[in-house]
Amino acid sequence: MAQIIDGKKASAKLLSQVAGDVIEFKAKHGITPGLAVVLVGDDPASQVYVRNKVQRAEQVGIRSIEHRLDANVSQAELNALVDELNANPDVHGILVQLPLPGHLDEDRIVDAIAPSKDVDGFHSLNVAALATGKPGLVPCTPQGSMTMLSETLGDLTGLHAVVIGRSNIVGKPMAALLLQANCTVTMVHSRTRDIASVCRQADILVAAVGVPKLVKADWVKPGATVIDVGINVEIIDGARKLFGDVDFASVSEVAGAITPVPGGVGPMTIANLLANTLQAAESQMPV
Ligand SMILES: Nc1nc(=O)c2c([nH]1)NC[C@@H]1CN(c3ccc(C(=O)N[C@@H](CCC(=O)O)C(=O)O)cc3)C=[N+]21
Ligand SMILES: [Mg+2]
């Protein structure tokens, strides 16, 4: 039976570090770090995540400001809000909850956020910084996954990491971070031939595709470390249940260590969002 990597515990540790750093920040600068969360429409899952983020922010002493916009808001109206938040000195971090309704251009909205306030690390300039190994804001889910990997395995040098999924928000930045940590990195996706045999070579297997229970036991090398980024919601007998991209029951009998869903990557994502907000606030202070 695999070691269960406890994301709640890891996130509690990071949150208490951030809370301490926020106290120091306030004493030094006389202001409170601020995070603006923009939610367009009334998708119930997004509402749950936004509520969690706002709650955790308060817990670590970060002021959070929620902006709710109607699902049919225009691109111009959303851009105007982003411009206003960019110019507001009380706002140090801006998160526009994704996905946005189809009539809105996500790339344009994300690139309208001031790069210094882009706490998701999705702005083109932060993407370029990560790709070239320069300092910047790093996406929260991959960053949280790396922390759990380091705490589980120590130095990752020379390990073969396979990332399933090539999204801009998880797969690609995850691969960049693993490469920076000296892993041999392979990315697989829907067009990969014999995906199972590639995954079976992995010392580290990261699943980030949004397909419930895609990864089976015979995709996993015995003893491998498995990071499950999937958050798939299903309603079973009227109850809301979460599934990862990994078939936990079977894979946990083969893997050396594995993150559960819930209680794995999700809580670490939120903790890193708040760490990024403090980093953003620090970078905006006069020297
Ligand atoms: N601009 C933007 N940035 C994001 O970081 C972002 C986003 N948009 N859109 C949606 C996804 C999803 N996401 C999650 C964060 C925490 C949990 C989380 O805390 N999950 C808990 C369970 C929560 C539950 O019950 O649903 C857990 O896994 O234990 C889940 C999902 C951030 N996202
Ligand atoms: Mg894909």
TrEMBL record:
<keyword id="KW-0554">One-carbon metabolism</keyword>
<dbReference type="GO" id="GO:0000105">
    <property type="term" value="P:L-histidine biosynthetic process"/>
</dbReference>
<keyword id="KW-0368">Histidine biosynthesis</keyword>
<dbReference type="GO" id="GO:0005829">
    <property type="term" value="C:cytosol"/>
</dbReference>
<comment type="subunit">
    <text>Homodimer.</text>
</comment>
<dbReference type="GO" id="GO:0035999">
    <property type="term" value="P:tetrahydrofolate interconversion"/>
</dbReference>
<keyword id="KW-0028">Amino-acid biosynthesis</keyword>
<feature type="domain" description="Tetrahydrofolate dehydrogenase/cyclohydrolase NAD(P)-binding">
    <location>
        <begin position="139"/>
        <end position="284"/>
    </location>
</feature>
<comment type="pathway">
    <text>One-carbon metabolism; tetrahydrofolate interconversion.</text>
</comment>
<keyword id="KW-0521">NADP</keyword>
<dbReference type="GO" id="GO:0004488">
    <property type="term" value="F:methylenetetrahydrofolate dehydrogenase (NADP+) activity"/>
</dbReference>
<keyword id="KW-0560">Oxidoreductase</keyword>
<dbReference type="InterPro" id="IPR046346">
    <property type="entry name" value="Aminoacid_DH-like_N_sf"/>
</dbReference>
<dbReference type="InterPro" id="IPR020631">
    <property type="entry name" value="THF_DH/CycHdrlase_NAD-bd_dom"/>
</dbReference>
<protein>
    <recommendedName>
        <fullName>Bifunctional protein FolD</fullName>
        <ecNumber>1.5.1.5</ecNumber>
        <ecNumber>3.5.4.9</ecNumber>
    </recommendedName>
</protein>
<dbReference type="InterPro" id="IPR036291">
    <property type="entry name" value="NAD(P)-bd_dom_sf"/>
</dbReference>
<dbReference type="InterPro" id="IPR000672">
    <property type="entry name" value="THF_DH/CycHdrlase"/>
</dbReference>
<dbReference type="Pfam" id="PF00763">
    <property type="entry name" value="THF_DHG_CYH"/>
</dbReference>
<dbReference type="GO" id="GO:0004477">
    <property type="term" value="F:methenyltetrahydrofolate cyclohydrolase activity"/>
</dbReference>
<dbReference type="GO" id="GO:0006164">
    <property type="term" value="P:purine nucleotide biosynthetic process"/>
</dbReference>
<dbReference type="InterPro" id="IPR020867">
    <property type="entry name" value="THF_DH/CycHdrlase_CS"/>
</dbReference>
<feature type="domain" description="Tetrahydrofolate dehydrogenase/cyclohydrolase catalytic">
    <location>
        <begin position="5"/>
        <end position="120"/>
    </location>
</feature>
<dbReference type="InterPro" id="IPR020630">
    <property type="entry name" value="THF_DH/CycHdrlase_cat_dom"/>
</dbReference>
<keyword id="KW-0511">Multifunctional enzyme</keyword>
<keyword id="KW-0658">Purine biosynthesis</keyword>
<keyword id="KW-0486">Methionine biosynthesis</keyword>
<feature type="binding site">
    <location>
        <position position="231"/>
    </location>
    <ligand>
        <name>NADP(+)</name>
    </ligand>
</feature>
<dbReference type="GO" id="GO:0009086">
    <property type="term" value="P:methionine biosynthetic process"/>
</dbReference>
<dbReference type="Pfam" id="PF02882">
    <property type="entry name" value="THF_DHG_CYH_C"/>
</dbReference>
<comment type="function">
    <text>Catalyzes the oxidation of 5,10-methylenetetrahydrofolate to 5,10-methenyltetrahydrofolate and then the hydrolysis of 5,10-methenyltetrahydrofolate to 10-formyltetrahydrofolate.</text>
</comment>
<keyword id="KW-0378">Hydrolase</keyword>
<comment type="similarity">
    <text>Belongs to the tetrahydrofolate dehydrogenase/cyclohydrolase family.</text>
</comment>
<feature type="binding site">
    <location>
        <begin position="165"/>
        <end position="167"/>
    </location>
    <ligand>
        <name>NADP(+)</name>
    </ligand>
</feature>
